[in-house]
Task: structure prediction
Amino acid sequence: MTKQWAELTPSEKREERFKRWISPPGVSFASPQSAKAYKERTTRLARALQLQVPDRVPVFLPAEFFAASYAGTNLRTVMYDYAELKRAWLKFLNEFDADTFLSPGMVPPGRALDAVDYKLYRWPGHGLGPNALSYQAVEGEYMKASEYDALIKDPTDFWLRIFLPRICGAFEGFTQIPSLMSFQEIATVSFVPFGLPDVQASFQALLEAGRESMKWLAVVIEVGNAAMAAGYPGMAGGLAKAPFDTLGDTLRGTQGIMMDIFRRPDKVQAAMERLVPLVIDSAVAAADFSNTPLIFFPLHKGADGFMSVKQFETFYWPTLKKVLLALVNEGILPVLFAEGSYNKRLDVIQDMPKGSVAWYFDQTDIFRAKKEIGDKYCLIGNVPTSLLMTGKPQGVKAHCRKLIEVCGKDGGYILAGGANIDEGNPDNLRAMMAAAKEYGTYNK
Result:
C-alpha cells in the first residue's frame, strides 16, 4: 500500500522530491538528447547537493541580468518589453553550455510597478538612469516601532490596510477598509467601504497590475519551459527570507531593526515567531508548485558586518533555523546564500543536521569553510564578482581550478560566482564552465 505524503519520513520526502526533479512528470523534451542532458545535469546537481560525488563539479553561472546586456539590450527594455525579455534569455540559454538555467522571474514587470506606484524599488527610468544595470531597494520605516502588535495580531490585516498603502501610492484607499474581522452575517454595512471612490480606485490599480503581471508571467513560464525542454534545470523552486530579514529589509529598515533589538527585543522576537509559519507555508507551496526541491534564501542582515556573533545567535539564527528544519522535514533542501561574509558564523551554522542545507558563499573564506563545515553541507561559490567583471578568462579559469581542487575534493561542491553579474566579458562565464569540465571531473 502506497504511503500518504504525511506518513513519509523526511528522508523519504526528500527522495521523492529529488526524483520528481530529476524525472519531471509531464515534460516534453525537445529531443531524446535533451532528455538525457536534463537527467545528467539534475543528477549532477542532486549528488553534489547531497554530499555525494557526481560525475564532475556542477556550475551555477552567476548571470541574473547579464542576459539583457549580452543580447544587446538593457534591463529597462526587458522590464517593459516581454518579447525582448524572451529573446534575451533564450539567446543566453542557447549560447552558453550551462548546468542550470536562471529564470527571468527576477526581472519585474515595469508596467505592473507603475500601475501601483511602487515605492520599494528604484529601477531604470524610474528613479535611476535609463541604462542602470539593476534595480535598487529603497529602505524605509514602512512599519513604525509602535506597530509590532498590529503585525503580530494579524499579519494579513497589517499587510493590507497599513503596509501596502505605504509602499504603493495607488493603494492608499485600502486605509479606508475596516478590519475584515468586523464582518458579520448581517453584511450590508460591511460592504459600504468597498463602494468608496478611493477604495475602488485602489482595487482598479490592483486589477491593472494583476493583468500586466499575467502577461509577464506567461513569458517567464514560456522561457522556463523552453529551458527545461532543451535539457536545462532551474536551481531554485522558490525564494524565502529569514524572519529577521523580513522585519529588517521590508518593514523596519536597517536602522529601525538594529535599534529595536536594543529597545524592544521582546517585540522583535515575537514578530519573528509570528512570521515563521508564514515563511514555511509559502516555501513549501513554492516547492510543491515548481517540482524543484530547492528553496533559495538570500540572507542579508546576518552577515558579519551587521551584528555580533551574540546578536546572530540571539536574533537571527533561532527563527531561521526553525524555518529550515520545517522545510527539511518536508523533504526540501534550503540553499542559503550568505551575502557578505559569514567567517564569524561558521561555528554557529553547524547546528543543523548533516546534508540538510547547502551554503552559498559570497565573500566568506570558502577554503576555511571547506575545512570547518565542508563535511556537513554542500558548499557553493565563490568566484569573486570583481574577477568576473574585470578579469581575464585565464585568470577566471585559474581561480576556478583552485576552488575545484580544494572545495570540490570528495564532492559536495558547486562552482558559482560570489554574486551575480549584470554585464562583463561573456568569455569569463565560459571560462567557469571550461574549468569545471577540465579540472572538475571525478575519477570513477
Q: What stands out?
A: The chain has a mean pLDDT of 95. The chain is about 50% helix and 10% strand. The CA atoms of residues 143 and 274 lie 15 Å apart. Residues 197-229 form the longest helix (33 residues).
